[in-house]
Specification:
single chain, alpha/beta, 2 domains, 7-stranded parallel beta sheet, 12 helices, globular, binds NADP nicotinamide-adenine-dinucleotide phosphate
């Protein structure tokens, strides 16, 4: 298949591109500058220089592809609309990357949510994530425009990426701040739980979804779950640091900003990848997040 992927220089997009190439697909990838174009070409990806705001470019790339993966920015609506326009009436796949923060809460690190969301569970979307949820819905509605539209909703992704950006977001940021301050800081009491998934297992899911996901499907993606307190303790052990510092969310917000303190680190985001396991035969194989942090995580 000739696949067009956005976010080709990113953590998820780069890793997915490398996995697709290994499976025998050819990949054209959107990058924003010539230097990244040169570097992804070395991985075997044919670079396309542009941005998610280049509507005509996205329409043309989608038209000449056999399928599109959007892994650049889950919140960029005009880019998504351009990809839908390019694929209109074609029956080809469009895999759009969202994120499980669409079902996060405002626990501020101090409670565990009872709800583990499955794809059929009615969503309670926090106001700050409504625009992202609206984009997901627009993608799923593209089934009515003759597109095999699919939304992939990963939880906290860990592991080392295979493209230009080897680093994810949540765990590497805690490591960076621990390097700066000498302690691992966790929001609130750190009892809040996020599901998580290894990047290699996630890339495998994109491959399966590209090949056989039915139109109009959303997939949560996880291979386990863990509290941020446990993540913090594992990072401290790996870095040979003292006990984790539990930090009131409001204090964390002053330094990290409200979005990161309250949602990225203080919330619960528990999902069950039931549909991917059942419909796609997806079987995550990699070590759990805690084992990865303690045994494999590069410092
Ligand atoms: N990592 C996770 O744990 C996780 C979990 C769930 C959902 N997500 C979501 O998945 C998406 C990708 O995440 P990631 O971790 O792969 O992030 P990333 O490593 O920052 O990759 C994003 C890539 O998209 C490119 N990009 C961003 N905005 C663009 C634009 N307007 N035009 C063209 N290219 C653009 C960036 O290009 P440059 O290289 O030029 O900056 C970057 O290479 C994000 O929306 C993120 O919120 C991530």
């Amino acid at each position: 298949m000739k696949v067009f992927i956005t976010g080709a220089s990113g953590f998820i997009g780069g890793s997915v591109a490398v996995r697709l190439l290994a499976a025998g697909h050819s990949v054209r990838g959107l990058v924003r500058d010539a230097e990244k174009a040169e570097r992804i070409a070395k991985l075997g990806v044919e670079p396309v220089i542009g941005t998610l705001d280049d509507r005509d470019l996205l329409v043309a790339e989608a038209q000449k592809s056999d399928g599109v993966i959007n892994a650049a920015d889950s919140d960029h609506r005009p880019g998504v609309l351009a990809l839908i326009e390019g694929l209109w009436g074609s029956g080809k796949p469009l895999l759009h990357t969202s994120g499980s923060s669409v079902i996060s809460d405002d626990a501020r690190g101090n409670s565990v949510s009872e709800t583990v969301f499955e794809e059929e569970t009615p969503f309670v979307v926090p106001p700050s994530k409504q625009a992202r949820r609206d984009i997901d819905t627009r993608v799923l509605d593209a089934i009515g425009s003759g597109i095999r539209a699919v939304v992939i909703c990963p939880s906290n992704v860990y592991g080392v990426g295979h493209g230009l950006n080897p680093r994810s977001v949540q765990i590497p940021f805690l490591v960076d701040q621990a390097k700066k301050s000498g302690v691992v800081k966790i929001v609130g009491r750190g009892v809040n739980v996020w599901s998580n998934v290894h990047i290699d297992d996630l890339a495998e899911l994109y491959l399966l979804a590209l090949e056989k996901a039915p139109a109009g499907t959303l997939y949560f993606v996880e291979n386990g779950e863990v509290s941020f307190g446990e993540i913090g303790a594992a990072i401290a052990k790996r870095m040979k640091l003292g006990p984790v510092v539990f930090w009131p969310a409001e204090e964390a917000a002053k330094e990290w900003g409200e979005v990161w303190a309250y949602f990225t680190y203080g919330s619960n985001s528990r999902v069950n990848a039931k549909r991917a396991r059942k419909e796609l035969g997806w079987k995550p194989l990699r070590n759990s997040a805690i084992s990865w942090i303690e045994e494999e995580m590069p410092l």
